[in-house]
Automatic annotation (TrEMBL):
Family: Belongs to the tetrahydrofolate dehydrogenase/cyclohydrolase family.
Biological source species: Roseovarius spongiae
One CC-aspect GO term: cytosol
Protein's UniProt name: Bifunctional protein FolD
Lineage, opening ranks: Bacteria, Pseudomonadati, Pseudomonadota, Alphaproteobacteria, Rhodobacterales
GO molecular function: methenyltetrahydrofolate cyclohydrolase activity; methylenetetrahydrofolate dehydrogenase (NADP+) activity
Tagged with keyword Amino-acid biosynthesis: yes
Gene: folD
Reactions performed catalytically: (6R)-5,10-methenyltetrahydrofolate + H2O = (6R)-10-formyltetrahydrofolate + H(+); (6R)-5,10-methylene-5,6,7,8-tetrahydrofolate + NADP(+) = (6R)-5,10-methenyltetrahydrofolate + NADPH
Subunit field text: Homodimer.
Keyword annotations: Amino-acid biosynthesis, Histidine biosynthesis, Hydrolase, Methionine biosynthesis, Multifunctional enzyme, NADP, One-carbon metabolism, Oxidoreductase, Purine biosynthesis
Nucleotidyltransferase as UniProt keyword: no
Matching SUPFAM superfamilies: Aminoacid dehydrogenase-like, N-terminal domain (SSF53223), NAD(P)-binding Rossmann-fold domains (SSF51735)
Protein's pathway: One-carbon metabolism; tetrahydrofolate interconversion
Length: 292
C-alpha cells in the first residue's frame, strides 16, 4: 500500500476537542450554552444509530442536547409545529431533522421551515443560495468535513482538478460548491456521465458520494491523487456484515497519494462538523465572534 491514510477519526476527535474548549469559554465568559435539537420521525434503524451518536457527542462537548422522537405516523402539520417551537426556543441554536422522513411528509417543506440561522445541516434553500454565491452560510456537515480533511492534507486546493461523483443536494452539489470556492476546477459526475473512468482519471482530487459498494476501482485513480470516500455501504462478505465505501480501498490505496478509509474517514467528521456548526450558530445568535 502506498497511499497516506487520512485518519478521519483522529481528525474528528481534534475538532470535537476544539469545539469543547469554545463551549467552555462561551459558558464561562458569556453564560451561554449551545443547544442542539435533533428530531427523528419513525424508527429507521440507521437513523436511530445516527441520532443516538449525535446526542452522545453533543453532550460530550458540553452542549445541551434535546431529542424529539416522533411516531412514524406523525402528521406533517405536527412536525412543522415542533420545528416552529424550536425556531422560537432561545436555548436551541441548532435544529436537525433527521432524513429520510416518512413518505407522507414533504421533506423540502420541513427543511425550509427551519430558521436558516438554526439550520445546522445547511440544507435550507437560503443556506444553499448563500453557499453558491460565496456568502456566509451554514455549510452541510459531510462536505464540510471532506473539505477540512482536504485542506489539512494539501494546504491550498487552488487550481486542482477535482471530480465529485454524485450530485445529491446533501453531499455532491455542496461538495462541488466548496471545492469551487477553494478554486478547484470542478467536474460533477453522476449516473449519466459518459466515460466516467476517464473523467475520474483526470482528477487530482476524487470525492465519491454515490452509495454503490466499491464502485471506483484503483485503475480509475490518477497516481498520487487524493481520494475522499463518502460512501457508507453495508455488504455481506465471507458470511460477515461489513461496511465499505464507494471506492475499492484495496486497489485504490495502491495508486492514490492519500485516501480516507471506510469506516474511520468521512463518517466521524460529519458529526464533528455538526457540533462545529451548532457552535457557530450559537456564537452568531449571541453576536459573538465566530470560533475559528
Ligand atoms: P444519493 O443516492 O442521494 O445520490 C447518489 C448520487 O450518485 C446520485 O447523484 C447518482 O446520480 C449518483 N450515482 C448513482 N449511481 C451512479 C453510477 N453508477 N455512476 C455515477 N454516479 C452514480 O446519495 P447521497 O449523496 O445521499 O449519499 C451518497 C453516499 O454517501 C451513500 O453511500 C451514503 O450512505 C453516504 N453518506 C455518507 C455520509 C457520511 O457521513 N459519511 C453522509 C451522507 C451520505 P443521479 O443523480 O444521476 O441519479
Amino acid at each position: 500500500m502506498s497511499a497516506t491514510i487520512i485518519d478521519g477519526k483522529a481528525f474528528a476527535a481534534r475538532v470535537r476537542e476544539k469545539v469543547a474548549q469554545h463551549v467552555t469559554r462561551l459558558k464561562e465568559e458569556h453564560g451561554v450554552t449551545p443547544g442542539l435539537a435533533v428530531v427523528l420521525v419513525g424508527e429507521d434503524p440507521a437513523s436511530q444509530v445516527y441520532v443516538r451518536s449525535k446526542g452522545k457527542q453533543t453532550v460530550e462537548v458540553g452542549m445541551k442536547s434535546v431529542e424529539h422522537k416522533l411516531d412514524a405516523d406523525t402528521s406533517e402539520a405536527d412536525l412543522l409545529a415542533l420545528v416552529d417551537q424550536l425556531n422560537d426556543d432561545p436555548e436551541i441554536h441548532g435544529i436537525l431533522v433527521q432524513l429520510p422522513l416518512p413518505d407522507h411528509i414533504d421533506e423540502d417543506l420541513v427543511i425550509n421551515s427551519i430558521s436558516p440561522a438554526k439550520d445546522v445541516d445547511g440544507f435550507h434553500i437560503s443556506n444553499v443560495g448563500l453557499l453558491s454565491t460565496g456568502q456566509k452560510s451554514m455549510v452541510p456537515c459531510t462536505p464540510l468535513g471532506c473539505l477540512m480533511m482536504l485542506r489539512d492534507h494539501h494546504g491550498s486546493l487552488s487550481g486542482k482538478d477535482a471530480v465529485v461523483i454524485g450530485r445529491s443536494n446533501i453531499v455532491g452539489k455542496p461538495m462541488a460548491q466548496l471545492l469551487l470556492g477553494d478554486s478547484c476546477t470542478v467536474t460533477i459526475a453522476h449516473s449519466r456521465t459518459k466515460d466516467i473512468e476517464e473523467v475520474v482519471r483526470r482528477a487530482d482530487i476524487v470525492v465519491a458520494a454515490v452509495g454503490r459498494p466499491e464502485m471506483v476501482p484503483g485503475d480509475w485513480i490518477k497516481p498520487g491523487a487524493t481520494v475522499i470516500d463518502v460512501g457508507i455501504n453495508r455488504i455481506e462478505r465471507d458470511g460477515k456484515n461489513k461496511l465499505v465505501g464507494d471506492v475499492d480501498f484495496g486497489s485504490a490505496s495502491e495508486v492514490a497519494g492519500a485516501i480516507t478509509p471506510v469506516p474511520g474517514g468521512v463518517g466521524p467528521m460529519t458529526i464533528a462538523c455538526l457540533l462545529a456548526n451548532t457552535l457557530t450558530a450559537c456564537a452568531r445568535a449571541n453576536g459573538l465572534p465566530e470560533p475559528e
